[in-house]
Amino acid sequence: MDTLQLGDIQIAVTRKDVKHVHLSVHPPQGRVTLVAPTHSRLEVLRAYAITRLTWIRKQQAAFHAQARELPRQHVTRESHMLWGRRYLLDVQYVQARPGVLLNHKRITLSVRPGADAAKRAAVMHAWHKAQLHAVLPEIIRLWEPRLGVSVHGYYLQRMKTRWGSCNHLRGHIRLNTELVKKPRHLLEYVVVHEMAHLLAPTHDARFIAALDAHYPRWREARAELNALPLSVG
């Protein structure tokens, strides 16, 4: 993989068996990638990227202008998001197995006495992953026949620069656990986006056509997701 440095903008260049150059700016941090045909010369790609500098900066500015959530300490009366709704957290220190309960107004986090911020965060993160595991298999089953693909496995992890990724050779998709904080339809959008990469590994015309055909509201969903606050911890 090569890198283009245009002033303060770094562009990761990947060459693949594609017909056209595809330039992308990725949320949430504005990471820039360029996918090019296998035999493209780097100086030609640099010249192309220069013509797109204004567009790149505009996209990055939009991402950087997004609201940032303050780092969470996981203490009582702190606000937490789940599926697009805001809840108040109630931390209970008890001699029992740590866990999380949800009611219509409050999230109750139970930890053992003396549990520090890192432990409280770990219990909450495990619960977030459980919430995602509860809904993801059904979303995948719903979309496999629609797209005509098969997902061999999915994985959850914290990601700093993307909402999801796809390994099209293995049939695996990877999703950002931060998606549990967003409305459920945006989780579905990211899943469909990554599953569409099983049809087309890059953001080429075939990929766009697949989304247009099967998920025509994808542009609106992408804009909504990118407009929501980002977590910084």
Question: How would you describe this protein?
Answer:
Helix content is 37%, strand content 28%. By secondary structure, the protein is α/β, with parallel strands linked by helices. The chain folds into two domains: 2-64, no CATH class; 116-231, Metalloproteases ("zincins"), catalytic domain (Zincin-like). Helix 4 (184-196) crosses helix 6 (218-227).
Give the SSE map.
Elements: E1 2-6, E2 9-16, E3 22-26, E4 31-37, H1 42-51, H2 53-64, E5 68-69, E6 79-82, E7 85-93, E8 99-102, E9 106-111, H3 117-147, E10 153-157, E11 164-167, E12 172-176, H4 184-196, H5 205-214, H6 218-227, E13 230-231
Parallel strand pairs: 2-4, 5-13, 7-9, 10-12
Antiparallel strand pairs: 1-2, 3-4, 6-7, 8-9, 11-12
Helix pairs in contact: 3-4, 4-6
Largest beta sheet, briefly? Answer: 4 strands, mixed
How many domains would you count in the coordinates? 2
3D shape: globular
Radius of gyration: 20 Å
Helix proportion of residues, in percent?
25-40%
Could you tell me the number of beta strands?
13
Query: Average pLDDT value?
Result: 91
Q: Which structural class fits the helix and strand makeup?
A: alpha/beta
- Poorly predicted regions: none
Largest beta sheet: strand ordering: 1-2-4-3
CATH superfamily of the largest domain: Metalloproteases ("zincins"), catalytic domain
Q: What order do the helices and strands follow?
A: EEEEHHEEEEEHEEEHHHE
Distance between the termini: 30 Å
